[in-house]
Amino acid sequence: MTKEEKPKTPYEIMRAVNVSDKIEKKNGLSYLSWAWALDTLLSHDPEATWEFHEPKEYGNKTYQVSCTVTAFGKPRTMQLPVMDYKNKAISDPDAFAFNTAMQRCLVKCISLHGLGLYIYAGEDLPDGAEVKISDKLQKEFDDLKKQAFEATAETYPKLRERVMEFNKRQDVPQSMVDELTAEMVKTKKAIDNAGN
C-alpha cells in the first residue's frame, strides 16, 4: 500500500461484496436471504450483534418493527412496516407476518453497514458492475411500456396480467419493474378519471 492509499473502511469492504447472485425476486421485488446476509456479516465481524425492539403500533392496527445491528463497533438502526407480499402494511398481523418483517428488517439493517445497500437504492448491481440487458428483454420492456401508455379500460386488465408476469422474472432488473409499474399506475388513474 502506498502512502496515498488509505486502508478500506469496513463499510467500503462490505459495500464491495457483490450480492447479485444472492438476490431473490418475489413479485418484482429484490430480497437477500437473512441467513446469508447474517453469515456474511459475521464472517467480516464475528463480534457483530443485533437486537429487535418493541414493535410500534399505529392507530389502524398496523405495526412497524425495528432492529439495531452493531458491527465494526457502530450501531445502526432500521425500521420496517409489517407488510404483505405486495409491500402494503397489514392490519392486525399474525406472528408469521411479524417474523417475516423482523428478518427483512434485519437484512435492511445489515445493509446500513454496506452489504447489499445498493438493492434498496433501486440498483441491481454495485458500482462498476455491468448491467446486461438483452435486446429481447429491452424490446419486451419497451413494448409493454408503450402498451401501458396506450391502454384503454378494455385492454388494461390483460395488459396488467402480462406486466405482473414480466415483473416476476429473474432477468428483469428492479429499475425496469419500477418504471413499468409507475407507467401502469398512471394509466390506471387516467382510465379511472376518464370513467368519472
Write up this protein.
There is one protein chain. With 196 residues, this protein is of the alpha+beta class. Strands 3, 4, 5 and 6 form a four-stranded antiparallel sheet that branches. Strands 1-2 form a two-stranded antiparallel ribbon. The chain starts with 9 loop residues before the first helix and ends with a helix.
Quickly list its features.
196 residues; 6 helices; single chain; alpha+beta; 6 strands; 16% strand
Strand content: 15-25%
Largest sheet: number of strands, sense, barrel closure: 4 strands, antiparallel
Helix coverage percent: 40-55%
Mean pLDDT: 85
Number of strands: 6
Which radius of gyration do the C-alpha atoms yield?
20 Å
Ordered list of secondary-structure elements with their pairings:
Layout: H1 10-15, E1 23-26, E2 29-32, H2 34-44, E3 49-52, E4 56-57, E5 63-71, E6 74-81, H3 95-111, H4 135-150, H5 156-168, H6 174-195
Antiparallel strand pairs: 1-2, 3-5, 4-5, 5-6
Summarize the structure.
By secondary structure, this protein is of the alpha+beta class. The protein has helices at about 10-15, 35-45, 95-110, 135-150, 155-170, 175-195; strands spanning about 25, 30, 50, 55, 65-70, 75-80. Strands 3, 4, 5 and 6 form a four-stranded antiparallel β-sheet that branches. Strands 1-2 form a two-stranded antiparallel sheet.
